[in-house]
Amino acid sequence: MNLHSINTPSLILDREKVRKNINRMEQHISTQGVSLRPHGKTAKSVDVMQMFHEPSRSGITVSTLKEAEYYFNHGFQDILYAVGISPQKLDRIFALIHRGARITIILDSLAQADAAANAAQHYRTRLPVLMEIDCDGHRSGINPDSSLLLYLGRYLDAASFLDFQGVLTHAGESYGCRGIDCIRQTAELERTRAVDCKMRLEKAGIPCPVVSIGSTPTATFGRDFSGVTEVRAGVFMFQDLVMAGLQVCHIDDIALSVLATVIGHQKEKNWIIIDAGWTALSRDRGTARQIVDHGYGMVCGFSGKPINGLYVSSVYQEHGVITHREGKEIVMDRFPVGRRVRILPNHACATAASFNSYNVVDGSEEIVHQWDRINGWD
Ligand SMILES: Cc1ncc(COP(=O)(O)O)c(C=O)c1O
Question: Do 162 and 198 contact (CB within 8 A), yes or no?
Fold first, then answer.
């Protein structure tokens, strides 16, 4: 099989680029003297996660219990489920723990802590817990300055079957930065907010051995990791246009693309129509607020090299419209019906989520493997 013979739209993964992205991050984090706990939500693929080396492959992060079960079934034992726990998921967590997994949950409320403590008591099984801290107002987590920090810390520390491990935070605001200085400041805020919480908890007599932080931008540009015990990141494995816009990577580092076929033209409008719409490319518009807006993706030739100025400017369910970003006339003869192009994604996690497998290439047109992905929740 090769890129000419497979169906379109299809997801293409360049294994050599993934390898380089992983090695670069592993090396960077290890020189900082902290552990990398890669996030399995980007790849949702055991074949990709097995490309990590020790020690980073010995502890991973997941975003669904389906991922947790899948990775555990493939030999990953130390798994951090880094989405706030909902009480009805606890039975599934204990089923995994009883099979030998070490699953850590996160929470930021007394209601969740109560549910976790009751379930752990019911199963008479110890459950590791991290408290989620909101370091930048991005999403969930406890305000680090609130009295809830110590209140919840005491509750978790005292609960007989809960193992309170420490604090976790995620600097999601880093994706909105303009420039490396902003990312560095966000990284420092992420670190200091988490470390301050640890210090407040320990001053109150509550041991807090784990300080878990991370996002791809802050992991890449953070300069000081003191007090941190582990860094979580995921999107760096594939990289994408948002990360390139943040200067986290170069366009050439992006390992993921969608293979699409030209299905028509609107010559008077200077449009090329392809068979990849939002179901294939996603509706993610993460580059819209960046200096270069890539629409729904950057257009590359068959070999994966960007074609100057061409991008997917609009999408329908199964159609994508390619135009020139400066309105220059496109030589339509270069893109006859049936010609194939590759589209680089704004957000790798969102684009990959539409597909059940990767067509793996090693820089050429041959497909050397097909790797499954584990989408969904059940
Ligand atoms: C809790 C948590 N940790 C880590 C990450 C990884 O960040 P990135 O996608 O920037 O690699 C995410 C991403 O959403 C996350 O939600």
Answer: no
